[in-house]
Structures are given as C-alpha cells and as structure tokens.
Amino acid sequence: MPEAARGTLIERVMSRRARELGQGFPRQTSVPTSGFITLSSGTPDFPVPPHILDGAKRALDRGETAYTPWTGIPELRRAIADKLAQDNGITVDPDSDVLVTTGTQEALQVVCQAFLDPGDEILVSAPYYDEYRRDALMAGATLVSVPSRQADHFAIDVDALAARITGRTKAVIVISPSNPTGAVQSRAVLERVAALAAERNLVVIADELYEKYVYEQHRHHSIAAMPGMFERTVTINGFSKAFAMTGFRIGYIAAPAEFVRAMLPIKHGMTICAPSISQWAAVAALTGPQQWFCGVLAEYDRRRHLWMEALDDMGLSYGRPQGAYYIYIDVGTTGLTAAEFSRRVRDEYGLVIGSGGSIGPEWDSYVRGSLAVPTEMLPQGLARLAEAVHRYRGARA
C-alpha cells in the first residue's frame, strides 16, 4: 500500500480515544546497554527466588498448561486470602472476593472498565504513574489530578481531594507506597481519605504493589482494613515488584463479591485467565519462605542513602523516599526541564533517567531516580549525574 494511502486509512479508522492515548506515550525502543547506565528503572534488579522458579517448573512437569478458572486457581486464591489476613488485616472469602489477573496493569484496566462510564471522574493524588490516566481515558472517564507537595513528603492533600469532588466523581485512587515519589501514606491520612469516601459514597482503589518496600519508621497501611472500608474498597496487588516476577505477568484484585462479579466478564474478555504456570509460581511465592526479602530491603535502603547523600552534595532538592524504590528529584536549578535534562544526560553522559510518567506543569522539572540500579553501577551513575548537574548549572550562571 502506498505511504499516502496508508496514512489516509489510519486517519480514517483510528479512534479519537486511541489518538488521545498516544499523546505523550513514549515509543518502545531498546534501552542502550554499551556504556549506558539506567538510573530510573522500574524493574527490580534481584533474581526471582529459586523456590518460585521451582514452583513453576513443577507445574510444567505436571502439565498445568490449560485454562484455569477465570478467577484463578483455588490454591492461589486461598494463598492470597491468607496473605491479606496475615499481612494486611483484610478478611476475604477466597471463593468470591479474589480475582487473579494478568499483572496489575490488567487489574487497573479491569477496575476502570467495571466502574467508570463516559463522563465519570476519578481522583488521584499527583504525581502519579501515568497508566492511571490512560486506563480512565479508555473507559471514557477523566482522571482528576490533585497535586501534593514535596514539602509535605507528597502526602495526599485530603482537603484538596474533597474540593475536587463533583457529582461525576465515582472513585479515588490511593497509591501507597508511591511510584514515582516514594511516599508512604500515614494511617492518619488514610483515615481521613476513608472518612471522605464514606461521606461522599465513593469507591477507593488501593494500589499496594510496593507494600514490601518501606523504610525507617514508616509502615504500610491497607485502607480496606479500616472500619467499614472493605465494602467500598478494591485492593490491587501483584508479584512483579516484591518477587521480581515481572515477566510472569501475575497480579490480583481483592474486593467485595459483587464487585468481583462485575469485573469478571471484563477480565475474561481481556485474557480469560492469568497464565497457569505463573499462577503456580505465585502460589510458591506466597507459601514459600519470606525472610530472603530482608536482604533485598536492606540493600535497597543502602542505595537509598547513597542517592540522598549524592543529591545533597549536588544541591538538588528531592522528596525523601519513605517507600517503594524511587526518589523524585527536582532538577530545575540546572535551568532545564525534566525532558531536556533527560535527553542531555542520555546523549552527553550515557545516563538513562526519566520523569516516571508524571503529567502536568507542576512536575516539569522532576525526574525519577531508582534504587533498582545494580550496586556496582550506582556509584558510577551518580558520579556522572553529579558532573552533569555541575556543568549545566555552571552554564546557566
């Protein structure tokens, strides 16, 4: 087909929503490897624990390769229910309140398609991972951004949240620990969000994917465990971050049975069921040893301090990471926007660092650093970053 004809066809058939989704969406390209250091990776850099791989291998040996129940295999749903009761204080019925998904990205999409109609609004504290905006948009809804402040450690501004509720608002997303800021919402903040949701009859979507990564005195709290909140909360979690199972594509939703029933046809239409081998690997992850993660957390905490000490020496402002494995850095004093800064350090210093998906002018000067940088590479990456900052700031002066 001639290039001009193909272009005309694309313009004729592409939906308005697809065009909107594509705005600002990065092209998928291979990350350069030779001589480059990635400082903002979202992928854990530790290997999948052997007992999880063994669980997947045993499932293969047993021939567990067929479709599973749409909600997930009973063994995994029971393991998830046990985990939620022990770690989060959330009581669920594994037969009716748990839906296993093909990763948490699918979980978010399923939830948005189940709850949102065209014209609806959903609230989220910003900055945030941009997939939430795309998921709302695909449902024809609007994601309403409620800015937080670095000075408040990116805590949810509950008063600002309340001020943005309209007759079209259906839900509020709570992300804790947060990508990209590393914020962990305190119990006091979550209690206020819970009271607001009950008062205004909103659903709460709790994204708890990074729950195992918390530092210092901070603690992860599940809003669904608070009095009266399970009935209006959808909890989303998965295995990619805590168990390095990114390629297994396995996550889950915990919610009241009537919510799960509403979501099931949508999940089925997307992927029927989560991959069978991945489900058995997830069973091994939840029922096997857990102490190994203490070493991972200790190493990530050590890297967190390396980042903070380096940024302090550079004179860059940042939000002190309380959880997850990110550090949100304001590079505005270099005189560059985040996009300009990212491009220049890539081309001139071999560093890959980006914004983490944040949308809005408030975050134009912020980049997202990551603790998931191999230990042997992080000091060199930070040294290059310091050289770049010094040079750009000097050029501005």
> What is the total number of structural domains?
2
Query: What is the C-level CATH assignment of the largest domain?
Result: Alpha Beta
Query: What is the helix content?
Result: 40-55%
**Coarse morphology:** globular
Assigned CATH architecture of the largest domain: 3-Layer(aba) Sandwich
Q: Averaging pLDDT over every residue, what do you get?
A: 93
Which sequence of SSEs, written as H and E, runs from N to C? HHEHHEHEHEHEHEEEHHHEEHEEH
Euclidean distance between termini CA atoms: 54 Å
Beta-strand percentage? 5-15%
Tell me about the biggest sheet? 7 strands, mixed
Computed CA radius of gyration, to the nearest angstrom: 21 Å
Query: Uncertain regions: pLDDT < 50 for 5+ in a row?
Result: none
Structure summarized in a few sentences:
This protein is of the alpha/beta class.
